[in-house]
Amino acid sequence: MKNIYKFNSKSGWIILIFVLFSGIKAEAQGIGCNELNFTITLQPGTSCCYKLTATNTAQENCFRTVNLNIGSDIFENFTGLSDFQVNKIEAGEYNIRPAVGFIPKGVNDVASFCVRGGPSSNFVIQWNNLCLSEGCEQIIPLAACAWEGAIQGTVYADIGCAETEYSDQPTLEDWNVSLYNGDDLLIQETVTDEFGYYLFYNLPPGQYYCRATAQPGWSPNVPATGQVQVNLEINEIRTENFGYCRNDCSCDSLLYSVQQVEDNNDTLTYYISLTASQDICYRFLEVAVDSGQLVDFYPISSLICCTENNKSCCHWTGLKKPGEQTIILEHDSGSIPIYNDLILKLRIAGGDVQKLSIRPRIDESDNSGLCDKSYSYSFPTEPLLNCCPNKTFLGPELMQW
Hints:
By secondary structure, this protein is mainly beta. It contains 1 helix and 29 strands. The N terminus and C terminus are likely disordered.
C-alpha cells in the first residue's frame, strides 16, 4: 500500500512516498534509495546488543549522513564503527556519518548498540541520496529485550518488635508478597522461600506498591504499614525488606527447670531445662551466676528436637561475657524455638548460697528484666568433712579420700 510520508529532518520538510512491508524492511520509492541498504544483526554472545551494517552499491559518492529514530530512548552504548561518528540529537534520535567524506562503497559496519527493556519498536533509518535529490527511508522492526528491573527482599522476624532493620534475624518462609502497579492493581504474587527471600523481575520503570501479608499472630513493624512504595528506574534492582513481629509473646511462654546435683566436693552441678511454647520471641538467653563462682559450662544439644523436626540438630552454643559470670546461650535457628529439653549444664563453686538467674533477651541492648527469673540453692547440700589444715578450706575439685 502506497503512502505519502512527511517527516521533519534537520534540512527541512521532505515528502516521501514509500511502501511499508510487514517483513524486515520497507524502502522508499525511487531507484536511488535501493543503492543503500541497512541490516541489523545480533552480536554473538549477547541477547540485546546489535550491529548496524550499511551496503552501498552506488557508483558515485551519494550518501553522507544517516538519521536514526526509534521513537523512545531505549538505546545503550551506541557507538560508531569503522571510522563512523555517532551523534545524539535528542532522546531516541541519532545521526551517523563517516568521519571524512561519504559512506564508502561496499559493506560497512556502521554502529553497534544495545537495547534496554521496553516495548518493541520500529528502527527507522532516513537518509538523502545527494546524487538524485531523493529522500529515503528504511524501517526495520526491532524487538526490545525484556525489562531487567526487579524488586527483591527478605521477610524477617523483628524480634521483640524492636523496629530493627534486617541483618541476621530469623527469616519467615512461605509468606505471601504481592506487587501492585501505580493504579493499585495486582500484577504479581509470590511466596518467600526457605530463606525468607522474594523476587519480582522483568519490571519496566514506574511506580509500584509492594506488600507482605501478615500471618495470624504477627504484626508489620518495619515498615509499620507492611507496604512500601517503589519508584523504579530503568533496569533498577531495588531491595525492600519487611520486618514482622509476634504480637502474642509473653513471659509465660518460657518455663525453666533447674536441677541441682549433689556432689562430694565444693563444686555443685546444675542442669537447666527449657520449655518454650512460642518461637521467635527472643533472640537468646543469658544465664548469670549471681552468687558463687562459675567454674565451667556445657551447652546441650537436643536429640528429641533432631528426631521430631527431622532437621539438623537443635544446637545451642554458649559464650561467656568477658569479665562477667554470665553465659550467652544462643540457638542455631537464630532465636529461641519451640522447645522442651535440656539446654545447659554448669558448675558453681563456693558461697553459702549459690544463686543464678535466667534472662531472655531480644537483643544485646535489652535490659528490661521483665521476664528474668532467679534461683537460689544452699551450699553445700550436705556437710562435708573438712580435712584441710587449720585456716584453710576446700578448693575446687578437691577429692575426698
